[in-house]
Every structure is written in structure tokens, then in C-alpha cells.
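Q: Given only this backbone (111 positions), what sequence would you predict?
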């Protein structure tokens, strides 16, 4: 990944991940967070695991991020964009759609 791609990824990630690390960490401890998303073999959901990784990325210094971190950031950007395009009608306050997005660091109702 070249410097231009890293910068674009950084900017997209910072734009779409609108939850502060402490808020995301608190959210990830909630029952709603842990029940949202796709679970494999009864374990942690993909989004929940991603959320923990996002907290670590948000707390890291930009210069300390690895290519693997940037790949995960691209994955987050892609997921959030796809998921936002599938917004259900009506109130999303207590929806699985919102909870899943929040696991990926994006609260569609603010943040």
C-alpha cells in the first residue's frame, strides 16, 4: 500500500468511524452489541471482533499503524458504506441494523 492509499484509507476511516474509542469500548460490552451481527460457532461476531480492533487502531499513533491495520481500516470503510446503503425504513434507534454498524464504529444517529 503506497502513501497515497494509506492517506485515503486514513481519511475515509476517520470520516466513517464516528464513535470515540471509549464510547465504542463501552458499547462493545453491552448485551445489544454482543448479540448483533453474524456469529460463527456461537462465538464472537465478526463485527464485535472488528470493533475491538477498531478501538486499538483509534488509540494507536498514525505512524505506528501497520499494513494489516490499514487493510482492516479498508474493510471497515467498505462494510460501513455497504451497510449504510441498506438503511431500513422507519425508526432505527433500537434496530439490529444500527447495532451492527455501531460494532464497526459507526453510529448512524450521531456520535
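A: Predicted residues:
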Amino acid at each position: 500500500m503506497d502513501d497515497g492509499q494509506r492517506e485515503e484509507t486514513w481519511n475515509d476511516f476517520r470520516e466513517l468511524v464516528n464513535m470515540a474509542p471509549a464510547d465504542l469500548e463501552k458499547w462493545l460490552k453491552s448485551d445489544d452489541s454482543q448479540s448483533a451481527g453474524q456469529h460463527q460457532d456461537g462465538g464472537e461476531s465478526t463485527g464485535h471482533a472488528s470493533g475491538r480492533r477498531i478501538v486499538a487502531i483509534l488509540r494507536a499513533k498514525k505512524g505506528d499503524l501497520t499494513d494489516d491495520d490499514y487493510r482492516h481500516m479498508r474493510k471497515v470503510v467498505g462494510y460501513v458504506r455497504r451497510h449504510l446503503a441498506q438503511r431500513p425504513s422507519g425508526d432505527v434507534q433500537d434496530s439490529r441494523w444500527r447495532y451492527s454498524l455501531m460494532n464497526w464504529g459507526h453510529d448512524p444517529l450521531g456520535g
